[in-house]
Design goal:
Layout: H1 6-9, E1 17-18, E2 20-22, E3 33-34, E4 45-47, E5 55-62, E6 72-81, E7 89-92, E8 106-114, H2 140-146, E9 154-160, H3 164-170
Parallel strand pairs: 1-9, 3-9
Antiparallel strand pairs: 2-4, 5-6, 5-8, 6-7, 8-9
Amino acid sequence: MNKDSIVPDVIDVAPSAAIKIKYPNGKEVDFGSELTPTEVKDEPSVQWEAKSDKYYLLVMTDPDPVPAVREVKHWLVGNIKGNDVGNGEVFAEYLGSGPPKGTGLHRYIFLVYEQPGKIDFEEPPKTSQSSRANRLKFSIKNFAKKYNLGNPIAGNYFKAQWDEYVDERNKNVTN
């Protein structure tokens, strides 16, 4: 995460553990590997070393859009008991990568935070997969500070650049 400037661009300290991320098509995220938007369009399975009695927050963020938008929330799930993402509270449904044509490689970062307990999050209503509402101008650093989450305990990331699927995806995503 230091190699691709995730520290300090997105977080202050690199997590010590890895998140295992696997897409339904069998593709896996491997610390900076390049995957296409087509390969990551569907919600992946996510695993990390978790304690069954603890609550966690999972986020996927893209810090590389135009500066006015920086950063984009692609997935946000809180109050996950253990590492069963399906039992968590979804604030932003999974939205795969979608870098605009000509903007080069974007970093898509997955982070897990151990919550101090179950949190009554004061966030806007759930953002659906087909909406950009409440996704732009996100900051995981500020979010973590707001809810006293500390540093992430696990992470992983991939890079992606535009492919034809992005245009198809964007036809179904509203502002």
